[in-house]
């Protein structure tokens, strides 16, 4: 069977409901082997009866696909090379499957592995040796052009069953520039591990540098697959020493230049954040205090100001900030 511009949404929806967000067309061919007798029901013992009473060989040459997020923003992508899938004895084998965005020649996913339809058992490996992050801004619901520069790398294993998947992901983002209204923000040396099992997502060994300042991230998310927005968050973000002078340009922009970049001459804060609630109603508790021997210094006034001991607590909940 040869097909051109085949709609993929109905097919992907059958494989998994979560894939319904992907649409588009594909050009390729499929070879199906089986017998009419195998399709007819019998009264014999069904313990050895196949889920799929036929074998399939699928090759996809080209595709025009896109992911659409809940806000209607689309991220187009295509296959980086020929996709080869096989179905034999109720086992789907992904021999080669690599996908890339239209702006990037490097694949953002290379997937291989086996899915056994008997028991719905998975054994997949996915990876990318380096892909551009900018095209995924729309998928994440970020403002246009916010993701300026950055590349991601990852390796992942996906096991378990389709209803109870187990995922282990190691990721790395060497550098990422974010364009905001108050200036560019650089994130570097980001990486860590994410483990998902029994509807619990754990963040392990996760760290990054924000404008050169080391930040550690940990915690877990109790995931409700049928209602993602009500998943329970229990995350922590810690920075032992935020050098305030690294934020001087952002502070100047945010203050409409009432505070100049050179006005902030020193100081460091230790900051911790606890993130709880749900993705729909998130609560953030912030605790910040000056680092010993590193007072905050302003020279914006006739007499310079030095803050030797500052301790502040704040809670952000439902767009309301309480200090």
Average pLDDT for all residues: 89
Bin the strand percentage: over 45%
Describe the global form: elongated
The total beta strand count reads 22
How far apart lie the N and C ends? 66 Å
How would you describe this protein?
- This protein has 323 residues and is mainly beta.
- Helix content is 6%, strand content 59%.
- It contains three helices and 22 strands.
- The strands form two sheets. It has a six-stranded antiparallel β-barrel. Strands 16-19-20 form a three-stranded antiparallel β-sheet, with no helix packed on it.
- Strand 7 (98-101) and strand 8 (109-116) form a beta hairpin.
- The longest helix has 7 residues, at 9-15.
- It starts with a strand and ends with a strand.
- The mean pLDDT is 89.
Briefly characterize the structure.
The protein is mainly β and 323 residues long. It has three helices and 22 strands.
How are the secondary structure elements laid out?
Elements (H helix, E strand, L loop, with lengths): L1 E6 L1 H7 L6 E13 L1 H4 L14 E15 L5 E6 L3 E6 L2 E6 L1 E4 L7 E8 L4 E12 L14 E14 L4 E16 L2 E15 L2 E11 L2 E10 L9 E12 L4 H7 L9 E3 L1 E10 L4 E9 L5 E3 L6 E3 L3 E7 L2 E3 L1
Antiparallel strand pairs: 1-2, 2-3, 3-4, 3-5, 4-7, 5-6, 6-8, 7-8, 8-9, 9-10, 10-11, 11-12, 12-13, 13-14, 14-15, 15-17, 16-19, 17-18, 18-21, 19-20, 21-22
Based on the model shown, name its key terms.
323 residues, mainly beta, six-stranded antiparallel barrel, three-stranded antiparallel β-sheet, 6% helix, elongated
